[in-house]
Amino acid sequence: MKITLTTTKKEKPDFSKLGFGKYFTDHMLVMDYENGEWGEAEIIPYDSFKMAPSTAVLHYAQGIFEGCKAYKDKKGKITTFRTIDNFLRMNKSATRMCMPNLPVAIVLEALYELLNIDSDWIPTEPGTSLYIRPTMIASDSALGVHASHSYKFFIILSPVGAYYANGLKPTKIYIEDNFVRAAIGGTGEAKCMGNYAASLLAAEEAQKRGYDQVLWLDAAEKKYVEEVGAMNMFFVIDGVVVTPMLTGSILPGITRDSILKILKKYGYKAEERKISVDELYSAFKGGKLEEAFGAGTAAVVSPVGLISYKGEDMVINNGVMGKTAEFLYDKLTGIQCGRYEDEFGWINRLN
Ligand SMILES: *Cc1c(COP(=O)(O)O)cnc(C)c1O
């Protein structure tokens, strides 16, 4: 691996006021794919790319990304959480988008090296972490609509605080019954760029109406709840934790999977199945919709205090964070930051 260190280190931001994805570290990782193979991974100073206006990804969105996090534990050791699962998922996204798979072992090694080099960018304040953004783009410079022959893979790092400005304050979500995010057979399962572009208008309109997020329904019947912008959804109905099953149009979240494993280990009743809006509404009417929360790397666990459907507002748990969400937030962040023992083998210590 080639490493070129920066000669001008950037000034660090105030780690107590990070927000999400606004600051980037001194270095980045780049690796190019040409003539059927990946070149050497390189660590270079964080900088702009120079690319032709005809670059394929700029036109046809053949691009995928991932999101994972690094932390420092109490002893100052760098830890990462389930990173290998992110690269395995990235390869699934790559296959779906007709892009080459990554050499996972090499990429992981290179990422660890990058984290070591930029380790003084890993914040340690509660709720903060170093967000890792691996990305792959089609880099051919040609306008024909076909899979690119060349690709650029890169990883950038961003010290982050809470994903939502309000932190753990429950959010208000709007069940979208007009626009859809993903259909079976489409690209909902892949972390591909176009999915997010297609979701922005609905999110903006929901925000104008006073909601924070959109809860998507299945595209075929608009009957079953799927997920929120960048989070999988969980509900507690009559003491049972339920989450929509992976049908092909839902992103298979690593946080979702971690939560299901924690729930199982700690004796909660948890189910993966289809959940209709009607079921949610009648549970709400019957006083049995006890909690709702989203789960994803960026936000970890994000409580939902209100769900709106066709003009009807369902206020959940009096608009405050519920016990299950609190338990899961504490457990997950505890494992990630080393406050709790890693009973699941999810943590990798670098130094
Ligand atoms: C990334 C993402 C999630 C969460 O996945 P994690 O692996 O838990 O971060 C959920 N839904 C969508 C649409 C996403 O893009």
CATH architecture of the largest domain: Alpha-Beta Barrel
Count of alpha and pi helical runs: 8
**Attached small molecules:** pyridoxal-5'-phosphate
CATH fold call of the largest domain: D-amino Acid Aminotransferase, Chain A, domain 2
CATH superfamily of the largest domain, please? D-amino Acid Aminotransferase, subunit A, domain 2
Number of domains: 2
Percent of residues in β-strands: 25-35%
Sum up the overall morphology in one term: globular
CATH class of the largest domain: Alpha Beta
Order of helices and strands: EEEEHEEEHHEEEHHEEEEHEHEEEHE
Largest sheet: 10 strands, mixed
| Cα Rg | 21 Å
Number of strands: 19
Overall pLDDT: 96
How does this model look, in words?
- The chain has 351 residues and is of the alpha+beta class.
- The protein folds into two domains: 2-160, Aminotransferase class 4, branched-chain amino acid transferase, N-terminal domain (D-amino Acid Aminotransferase, Chain A, domain 1, 2-Layer Sandwich); 171-337, Alpha-Beta Barrel (D-amino Acid Aminotransferase, Chain A, domain 2).
- Helices cover 24% and strands 30% of the residues.
- The protein has eight helices and 19 strands.
- The protein has helices at residues 56-60, 83-96, 104-117, 193-197, 200-208, 254-265, 277-285, 323-337, and strands at residues 2-3, 27-34, 37-38, 42-45, 63-65, 68-72, 78-81, 129-138, 151-160, 171-176, 213-217, 225-228, 231-237, 240-244, 270-273, 289-296, 300-309, 312-315, 347-349.
- It is globular and about 60 Å long.
- Bound molecules: pyridoxal-5'-phosphate.
- Pyridoxal-5'-phosphate (PLP) binds at residues 67, 191, 227, 230-232, 251, 253-256, 296-297.
- Pyridoxal-5'-phosphate is lined by residues 67, 191, 227, 230-232, 251, 253-256, 296-297.
